């Protein structure tokens, strides 16, 4: 099947490559010529395990092409995925749907015949119906355009597997239209459906809400355990052991109960804020109280870590040498958007500490967002002479550090394990003072 994917960020690039892998002919379209050139050369513009291999394979086979021209997409395919970003509006909690709107404005007038637009971007509920109205108004005489919503649940760092083997496919359609969106989705996802992956066909607003509700639930789970961590700190209990004990209950489940520095990234923080904002617009104000608290608990963890670092120096971090290991918002990603790690590194630097930062993949992005920090190319350089080491992202290379070897480089063997990811007994045995969060 031929299809276009408009927007080639984390979501779009992975979806385009995934659909080529599923056997389709795919055209990825993006307004950024540098990104398009990189992708067309089989190069992923961000760190995502497994993606470069898929890109190279399908660019070479000719099944995957990239372009900056929406007219090419209109010519090439009848099915078009919208995968552009919906960032947080500056100065507001709302999601900025400008790029999604722009796709419809640019593409629809160019379409001839029967087309389907499937939105994958995370949007405020009601967007799909609005876009359908706009598409009806923009469509040329004789052209029909059906809009469906097909939210994406992929995690950075596991995006390829999440695209090829998702837990479920969700499709929102307007039941009063002709069924073209469902037919196109079934054809496109036929290999996944044949492999037994469930397809849930819902109405448009329900499908849009599944996505934000899923992210709000995950964020709530993380903040729940971090709230319990605050109580553990006050009570002298251990949140890591507690979380493990909770996880045995299948009604609760062990995942997303890892207490630490909290959530960040391009999705969870902005999605819960956009969800709150939209609920408010719709008059469902009381739903906001919970998510506001989820957000507040999450931000408090960052403040807690900054406070713990200051406390380690008697209240004043000015001139103290601190190594921050991690800049990415989570391991196996080079994404620093709303990264808790970069946030604490920045706050400590602003408090006068001499902060050195190392991350295995995210240094380039971190430098762009926070150019004034002192970035070091290796763990060894970052920790040399440090009076305190903070582990802020749980990369495997940090979890597997040799405490004796690191201990030989630092000025003081003190580590704040803000992700509760180190083998604390092993570090203590090597002479380190280890502090975690909630333990
Ligand atoms: C998330 C959703 O998982 C995904 O379905 C959606 O499509 C996009 O948003 P992602 O942003 O890649 O994916 O990150 P995820 O792996 O969910 O982690 C989110 C954040 O929560 C990270 O900062 C992570 O460090 C933090 N986290 C996660 C915890 O602090 N504790 C946990 O137990 C789990």
Automatic annotation (TrEMBL):
UniProt KW keywords: NAD, Oxidoreductase
Entries under SUPFAM superfamilies matching the protein: 6-phosphogluconate dehydrogenase C-terminal domain-like, NAD(P)-binding Rossmann-fold domains, UDP-glucose/GDP-mannose dehydrogenase C-terminal domain
Occurrences of domain UDP-glucose/GDP-mannose dehydrogenase C-terminal (ranges): 323-424
GO molecular function, one term: UDP-glucose 6-dehydrogenase activity
EC number: 1.1.1.22
Domain of life of the source: Bacteria
Substrates-to-products reaction catalysed: UDP-alpha-D-glucose + 2 NAD(+) + H2O = UDP-alpha-D-glucuronate + 2 NADH + 3 H(+)
Record's signal peptide: none
Active site: 267
Chain residues that bind NAD(+): 30, 35, 86, 122, 156, 270, 337
Similarity section: Belongs to the UDP-glucose/GDP-mannose dehydrogenase family.
NCBIfam families: NDP-sugDHase (TIGR03026)
Name of the protein in its database record: UDP-glucose 6-dehydrogenase
Organism of origin: Corynebacterium sphenisci DSM 44792
Lineage, broadest ranks: Bacteria, Bacillati, Actinomycetota, Actinomycetes, Mycobacteriales
């Amino acid at each position: 099947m031929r299809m276009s994917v408009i927007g080639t960020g984390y979501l779009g690039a992975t979806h385009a490559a995934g659909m080529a892998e599923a056997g389709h002919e795919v055209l990825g379209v993006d307004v950024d010529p540098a990104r398009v050139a990189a992708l067309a050369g089989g190069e992923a513009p961000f760190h995502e395990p497994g993606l470069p291999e898929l890109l190279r394979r399908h660019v070479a086979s000719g099944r995957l092409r990239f372009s900056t021209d929406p007219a090419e997409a209109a010519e090439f395919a009848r099915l078009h995925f919208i995968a552009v970003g919906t960032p947080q509006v500056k100065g507001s909690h709302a999601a900025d749907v400008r790029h999604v709107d722009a796709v419809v404005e640019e593409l629809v007038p160019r379409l001839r015949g029967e087309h389907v637009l499937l939105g994958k971007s995370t949007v405020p509920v009601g967007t799909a119906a609005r876009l359908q109205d706009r598409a009806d108004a923009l469509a040329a005489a004789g052209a029909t355009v059906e809009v469906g919503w097909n939210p994406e649940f992929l995690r950075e760092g596991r995006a390829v597997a999440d695209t090829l083997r998702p837990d479920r496919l969700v499709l929102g359609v307007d039941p009063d239209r002709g069924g073209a969106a469902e037919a196109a989705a079934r054809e496109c996802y036929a290999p996944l459906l044949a492999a037994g992956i469930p397809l849930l066909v819902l109405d448009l607003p329900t499908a849009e809400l599944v996505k934000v509700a899923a992210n709000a639930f995950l964020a709530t789970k993380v903040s729940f355990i971090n709230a319990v961590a605050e109580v553990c700190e006050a009570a002298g209990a251990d949140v890591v052991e507690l979380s493990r004990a909770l996880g045995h209950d299948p009604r609760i489940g062990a995942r997303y109960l890892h207490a630490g520095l909290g959530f960040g990234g391009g999705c969870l923080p902005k999605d819960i804020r956009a969800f709150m904002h939209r609920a408010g617009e719709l008059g469902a104000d009381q739903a906001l109280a919970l998510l506001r608290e989820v957000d507040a608990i999450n931000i408090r963890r960052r403040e807690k870590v900054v406070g713990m670092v200051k406390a380690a120096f008697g209240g004043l971090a000015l001139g103290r040498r601190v190594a921050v290991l991690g800049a990415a918002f989570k391991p196996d990603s080079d994404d620093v958007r709303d990264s808790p790690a970069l946030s604490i590194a920045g706050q400590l630097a602003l408090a006068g500490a001499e902060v050195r930062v190392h991350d295995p993949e995210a240094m380039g992005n971190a430098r762009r967002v926070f150019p004034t920090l002192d970035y070091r190319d290796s763990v060894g350089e970052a920790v040399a002479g440090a009076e305190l080491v903070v582990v802020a992202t749980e990369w495997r290379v940090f979890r597997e550090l040799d405490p004796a070897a690191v201990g030989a480089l630092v000025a003081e063997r003190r580590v704040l394990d803000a992700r509760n990811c180190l083998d604390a007994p092993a570090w203590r045995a090597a002479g380190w003072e280890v502090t975690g969060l909630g333990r």
